[in-house]
Amino acid sequence: MVKSVLDTATDTMEQSTTTSSSIVSKFVRREIRDLFKKDREAIFNAMEQQYLEGFQSILDKDAYGNVSDATLFALLHNKVGTCYHDGPQFLTAHPAMQVLFEQSLRKASALTLSTDLSSSFYWDFTIEGDTLGTEWHKSVIYRDSWFGPVKTLKEDNWHMASGRFKDAPMKRWKGDAAPWNLDRAMFSSYGILSDPCVPGTSEVLQRSTNFCGIENPQALPPMENVVHCMSTYMNLIDIEACLETTVHANLHSLHGGAWDCAFG
User: Fold this and answer.
1) Cys-Cys link to 261, which of 43, 182, 212, 222 (CB 3.0-4.6 A)?
2) Residue pair 123/255 in contact by the 8 Å Cβ criterion
3) pLDDT digits over 71-94, tens only?
4) pTM attached to this predicted model
5) Which uninterrupted H or E stretch holds 8?
């Protein structure tokens, strides 16, 4: 039940009017640890359809060819022209992509698994930053039944040796046409939708907490970083720059790692 109070003042008296109405929520978003187990499992099952089975619902197959939704997300995030980074639009562009992801997730669950999702999730990684420090990789987030381990081994070619996403393919643009002009910033030199500076040739997801033979001692960003950005700066441009560089940006490299370096 939601109540709203409308106060109106006159020269002689103050009048208050109270109205009430019921709101029905068909879809909720919770921190991933706060989800009911059955809801979380249903979400992960749908994500398997997105990332492992190539579920396609956003781009028309007749017009663009076989382009999975997960491939499109990689394209959107990397493409210079979509401007997902380096400016105030960062604060709205990423949530907009999350809405697109959730729409795809619900369709994948309904159409391939005959399950209607009532929940979605977000990950508050500052919890790991505040509670686990440099041992963030031990978080429940990296369980095999969740997103899988982030600490990997050279003898496994930095692939996950276990977990439901251990065989997740690296995405390539294989469509017959593209909804936007393609740009080089979207691709590695081997045609994979990743950072252009990444020279990896693996067709399967790789990740590591190791950088050139050195274990990274850095922790995930704590909540104090967010508080610092919001309390230190007074305009949106500076707040965004702080959030993107001290809260968001390191998530990519912390989960990616680096290997085959000239010196390590």
Assistant:
1) 212
2) no
3) 888 888 877 777 888 889 999 999
4) 0.83
5) strand 2-9
